[in-house]
Every structure is written in structure tokens, then in C-alpha cells.
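Human: Note C-alpha cell order:
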Amino acid sequence: MEKDLGRKEWLQAARLALLIGGVEEVRVERLARDLHVTKGSFYWHFKDREELLEVLLREWEEEFLEDIIPRLEGRRGRDAVSFLARLMVERAPLGEEGILPSDAAMFTWASVSPQVAQRVNRAEKKRIESLTQVVGDSERAELLYLVWLGFVARGKRVPSLRRQFPRIARAMLKLFPPERRGKMEAKRKA
């Protein structure tokens, strides 16, 4: 039975532990207990706890650029923000269930680890650069990212707020007025 427990299940349990209790709760013994298996099962999939933590950090670093940005391909301005808001509405609950990496968990971890903070800061810089390309200017990209961060931080403290994200996303769209096609083409050529 224990061999049947896959890496996917261990990662989901680790993501949940990181989100709920912080990095100190991401312990092999605790995860095994939560999964109702022995610690030996863990070692089929990971060398040690440090490897598991590295995987958690790496998957978060790569998720935005490798999964979200490619899905915005060909979208710009308000259309991109609208699509991004829908993606976030879909993905936020998956992070809370440990199915996907959680921004809230990563930011909490970064607040207690200078090494993780450095990597999170680098990843955020890349995220904002990518958002700038999609939305058309750095100020709006930064504002959009800050709105998301505020939502994540407040949603961790006030879980009932998470249901309001679709309304908040619609409000964000007001920051991106519809652009005329000719104006957009001129900006692209410039």
C-alpha cells in the first residue's frame, strides 16, 4: 500500500502543512501521520526533508512563469487582466487545498527565512516583468500584483474574504479601460 502513495500526495500534504502551520510543520513524521503511512514511504519519493522543501520552493517559483503566463499568450490589457482574474479565481481554492502552490504559504515562509525571501523576491521581480509585458505598463502591473498580494495576505487572516475575490477582480478591471485597437497598434509599433 505504501508504495502506492505517490509523490503527488506527499507534495499536497507538504503544501497544506506549509500553508496551515508554516515551514516548521513540514516534517516527515507529521506528513506521514497525516497521510496514515510510515515515514519509509516518504523516502521512495524524496531523499530528505531538504529536498522536499526545495521542491516546494521551486514549484512555486516556476508556476507563474511556466503555467500562468503562457496561458495569457496573445492577450493584452483589459482582456489579459480579465483572463488573469478568472485564472486566479479558479486557482486560489486549489492552493488552499494543497493541490497547487500557495502564495500565502510562500510569503509566510519568506518572512522567516532570508534565503527563501531572496528567492521569492527574485521570482516576484520576474512575475512583475511578465505582467508588465501583458498589461502594457509597469505601474499597472505593479498595482495589479499588489492587489493580489493584499488579497492573499488578508485572505489568510480572514478566510471568508476569499469568496469575494470575483468581486475584487471585477473592480481591478476598472483600472484597465477598454483600449481602442488603433491606439494599441500604435503603441506596439513605437
